[in-house]
Design brief:
Blueprint lengths: L10 H19 L5 H11 L2 H23 L5 H24 L2 H34 L20 H21 L3 H10 L4 H25 L5 H24 L5 H21 L1
Length: 274
């Protein structure tokens, strides 16, 4: 595997990876999708193809902490609707990684990052429009409520939407660990409020990321050297998760999302231009 060990990193490179790991913990308990910045950092410091395998255990550590924090707020009917389509997307992403070399993966991650930044902007505008609509309704849902029907998932259009988002989410999470914005857009469009959103996404990504481990190991993206680096980086996920838990009720969501989008665009352009 064309990767790097802990001993090959410079001080600045390790500091960048440590910050990215801290941001993973923060994103899992506060602002889902912020770890696209972590993805850009990992792909810039490490070989792009190998970075996806090295980042995966760090993400799983963040998922475990998120599940422990928001486990009571998960909406399981939504999860069961998504998993079959996600499995198809993961399988397609695995086949893509078998074929793609490091240069192709690097370019693909850059394109996916820019696409996800655009998706996030669109998703935020849709959410703002939905919030404005709900504000005119006297019976606005409480902050911790889950979606009542999964955004109309019982209808034909709802099932098609769930399958489409599931396949795209599975592919992007397998190829670039970048399924966060896709799933965020789906969950918000399904009517989830903050706690229901965080609880459902926590279980979703824990299950999906754990299921990706055999595929990544089979592709040579996870080995003893990468796990040694992961063991060190996971230490930084924990304070990030606690920071996110503290900040989730205090953070200025709009400003932070703008910063995340800007950093994601910069990271994507860097990968495409280098």
């Amino acid at each position: 595997m064309d990767t790097m060990t802990l001993w090959h990193l410079t001080g600045w490179e390790f500091a960048a990876l440590a910050f990215a790991a801290l941001l993973v913990g923060f994103s899992k308990t506060a602002v889902s999708g912020a770890n696209t910045v972590s993805l850009a950092i990992f792909a810039a410091v490490l070989p792009a193809r190998a970075s996806t395998g090295i980042l995966l255990p760090v993400l799983i550590a963040g998922d475990v902490l998120a599940v422990l924090t928001y486990r009571r707020h998960a909406h399981w009917p939504t999860l069961w609707r998504l998993f079959p389509a996600v499995g198809v997307g993961v399988a397609v992403g695995t086949l893509f990684l078998v074929w793609a070399d490091d240069a192709v993966v690097r370019t693909s991650i850059g394109v996916i990052l820019l696409l996800m930044a655009g998706v996030t902007v669109w998703r935020r505008r849709q959410a703002e429009a939905a919030d404005a609509s709900r504000a005119s309704d006297a019976s606005e849902a409480s902050d911790s409520s889950e979606a009542s029907d999964g955004g109309g998932a019982s209808s034909r259009s709802g099932r098609v939407k769930a399958r489409s988002y599931g396949v795209l989410g599975g592919f992007t999470t397998m190829v670039a660990n970048a399924g966060g914005p896709v799933m965020s857009m789906y969950l918000l469009s399904a009517g989830f409020r903050k706690l229901g959103f965080l609880g459902t996404s926590a279980f979703f990504f824990l299950i999906v990321n754990v299921s990706k481990v055999p595929f990544s190991a089979g592709l040579g993206l996870i080995d003893d050297r990468s796990l040694l680096l992961d063991a060190v980086l996971v230490v930084f996920v924990v304070p990030g998760a606690f920071l996110g838990r503290w900040a989730v009720k205090r953070i200025n969501q709009r400003l932070f999302e703008r910063l995340v989008i800007a950093a994601t665009v910069v990271g994507g352009l860097q990968l495409l231009l280098t």
